[in-house]
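User: two proteins, same treatment. go.

Assistant:
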Amino acid sequence: MLFVYVILAFVAGISELFTGTFYLAAVALAALFTAITGLILPGTVLHWVFLGYCLVLLPAGMWLRHRLARKAQGLTDFDLGQGVEVIGGPDQNEHYTVHYRGSEWMAVVDDGPAPCPGDRAVIIGKTDNLLHLGVLPQQPSADKESLCPPSSSS
């Protein structure tokens, strides 16, 4: 009878690796604890012992899963507040190309004036792979020529 619970623990443990839930882990632990308890108690009560372990470990697994999910929601996005350099744009969709973390990203300007290539901006949000930028104020420089095309306002 002990081998049944050892096999059940093994199968539930392997299945847990493919599903990612805590429920099968709780069943695997209950089966493993039942097999260990079976070394002391007679085999006729092991079904009740397994049921008792399941009634304790399944709610504990659900509580742990919800607790970990709640903690994960509080994680902040470490990209927010990081500086990027505008390297091109805007295109027909008002998207800019920026250099961030060693690669090029698509971005939109949510706050500030339209940037020119070479301007600096700060990430204020992110939607999938699209960065939302806040453009930093332009610092006038006497020795640098502006990369922005001259405005055609009269």
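Protein 2:
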Amino acid sequence: MAVDVLTEIVIDRPCAQVAAYAGDPSHAPRWYVNIESVEWRTPEPVTVGSRMDFVARFLGRRLAYTYEVVELVPGERLVMRTAQGPFPMETTYTWQPVDPARTRMTLRNRGEPAGFAKMTAPIMAGSIRRANQKDLANLKRLLESQG
């Protein structure tokens, strides 16, 4: 069973500002509840082919994986993918201006669990949805508090 979770939020900041901050993986530990660290394997900034090592905690487990940027449309869309571990994942960010001062950001996680993870896919999807909602709320608070 595939997992496909889409969440979105409107952030009271211009699209370029939201995309620049959220689209920089170095900032992920500041707004993702479960991400502990990000270490670049390729030179910054983000480009197609960039690779970063992430360490996260999810459902009580420590996860270490490498994301590779597979698509980048600056200010509009970022797609990262990992093929490692029991749950290969693709993460997509999109940013759309609602008006000059507000941005709609979507966060989509999808993947095809393997092995034991396949049996827990429905539980995993709910956990991912709740975590993503918290993460986007954190991002909103962080960016809107920057004045």
